[in-house]
Amino acid sequence: MKNGKYGCAVWGCGWVASGHIKAYLTHPACEVVALGSRRMESVDAKRAEFGLSCTACTDFDQILNDERVDIVSICTPNCQHADEAIRALEAGKHVFLEKPIAIEAEDIPRLLAAADRARTHSIVAFILRFNPLVNLQRRLVAEGELGRVFMANADYWFGRDRKGWMKHEAQTGGASILAGCHSLDMIRYVVGADFRRVTAQAAMVGDYYEYPPVETAQIQLANGTLGVFTCSLTGCVPYMANVSLLGEKGTIVNDRFYLKRFEGQADFFTLDTGVKKTGDVYGHPFPAMVSHFVECIQQDKESPHNLRSAVNAHLACIAIKKSAQAGGRAVIIDGETLRFE
Question: Considering only the top CATH level, what class is 6-125?
Fold first, then answer.
């Protein structure tokens, strides 16, 4: 920290990096001191976009060895996240990690061990946790407004051609781990229970992606809640992140509510939280995430959105892929490990 500001660096200068950079620039306690990527052209494009004259580099070690850097955002291809986060934690940096935290279940224990050893803090970019509507849904469930929630369904649909590395399975990890993880984590976050069992199927639709861009799964949470999850990276559809919760005393379908406490209610009523659903990174709540993370760092406290909090949803995504590849065989999520039933 220098002159009362945290030095912030962003490693990986693709599309999502803009959300991180903009959030740091709008926070009074943050200063962007470095941007890095494998290609200097990407770094130069971000510096030009935001009018920055910060350090530019193509070597991650340069960021890790920079004493000015307190916080590192990791926005690189999925397959690099686990190793780069471990290196950043071992270098004594606070880590703002883009999802996914890992694309292989075997990497998660290594990542958690590094986080446990570190004296720094972490946060994972599950943006829906900072959506006011999602937090309203979570509060109503926690307060018992829906009674026992016995069904929870979610969808992630966003049909667009994702360029570059996102077309390749080895770099993405699959459809759910690439994008659907947002909606899966939303179920876990709102219901307040971990995923326990998954059975899944996948389908090749089109020839743009080298892996199935469509995945569906039957899910079971540790508290007995059942649900259906669907993910599609293709099709003629705008960004959609749906959630439906069915309880003994009420139902929520996105921003529509039907609650037993309102006697005589004939149909759903709608609450407008003022948040527009968008797949555009510039519309995501990164400023709120940075503000929360800075507060955690200042108070030396763990964020409820840290690396460990993200593990179960990521394991569910990996389990979906494994189940689909095994013809729908059930996968059990047991703590930090996966096994076939």
Answer: alpha beta
